[in-house]
Amino acid sequence: MNNNAYLLINPLKESSLDLANKIKELTSGKVVMAPNIAVAQLYLQQELYNAIFLTLQPDQDIQSLIYQLPSSIPIVVVSPIKELASIAYEYENIVDFMLYPSSEARVWRALNRAQYTPILSNTRIEDSYAFIRAEAQMLKFNFNEIEYFSAFGSYSKIHTKDGVLVINEPLDVLMNILPSGVFRRVHDAYLINIYKITAVDSKSFFVHDRDIPIGKSYQKSINFLFNVKAQFV
To answer: Where does the record place the HTH LytTR-type domain (predicted)?
Structure first.
């Protein structure tokens, strides 16, 4: 497990160093501690983590916390309240529940579960459609129904003619798995269906009345794609 990184969120003061030290000793990996979800989201944007250790207290809304974290990273819930275990296991990316305090052997078991427990895929791509997870459901979207995707923290929003829905996949993942002949990243915050573009100018694409800005770092590839380079220089 060398060269790994682990994120501890909302750690109990008396347990944080103990758990961090155990993880370091067992993995020789890096341990980063975030005092809350907001700070954790900043860390998650800067580095990849093998697992998240999330401390829960009885007065916290577990659903709100889980939905603010990437669904592709395994989560180990840590709590001194054993009754929270039954709630925690309702979420698919929670791979283990660990009572505090925990022995070194118990931490090792949690690390192994995080490493080897498969996380249910959030997206399945077919020739002309995709099944994309929105909360607990896998929903089918035909490519010709999707107008664009927009960034939404660790998740994304899918925009169709029928409305907007939050999905469990970040834009970086969508960009790599959706067909590039249909969907193109045009901005850090937007992935667009090129067949839904109704107009274009030097700064934006338009999907009907929606203005989608063009990011500077994406301009060259977009100009080449649409053969309108002369308009943008």
So the answer is: 135-228
